Amino acid sequence: QLIVGGAFTSAGGAPAFRIASWNGTDWSSFDVGMNHEVRALGEFNGELIAGGVFTQAGVNSASFIAGWDGATWNPLGSGLGSAVFALAIYNNELIAAGQFSIAEGNPADRIARWNGTVWETLGTGMNNQIQSLAVYNGELIAGGAFIEAGGVPAQKLARWDGLAWDSFHFAAPSSTVSSLIVHNGDLYIGGAFTSLNGNPAPGIARWDGDDWQTLAAGLGATVSTMAIYGDELIAGG
Known about the structure:
By secondary structure, the protein is mainly beta.
């Protein structure tokens, strides 16, 4: 099924608060949904995971992240301290990122990992919000508005090798990285930037494993999301 999340309160003319599914014919709700916006969706341990700005999922309190077991929304521990913008799976753990600074009541700057039981940190995190995550060449990649990751310079883009944060091949987008995706073995970044490492790159760029490449003349404004359809890269924003 296709799962969609957002700020809506109906789907197909029926109540569906911020999350709904499409089976090819009809829209369906998930229980009573969320009390505020859903910003990220993923799957972990056989459950649908939703992250966002909400503090209630179904009939249960859930601090900005929750799991759907097929019948009920459930919190993931005591949750996170503020909004979740991105989800990923890395080393068999669920990674959540956004603008929070607390996970399970402990300091966790903008990113944390859930092993199915507790939330833990990934180093010392970032100094500003994370908006996108991807897994590329065995590393977790984060993009956002930060300029430091794990206490080291990393302008808008960073990589986690399982032990420490580092900049992503000294990339320095001129503004926020809002979207990340891997396609045909290359990493694509999209966002509000107009240049990368001082070179023109309007809204989108590709790392081919050796260097950064532009995509023709780029795009005229912020790239907020990317997806793969067939064998083509789709960008929206």
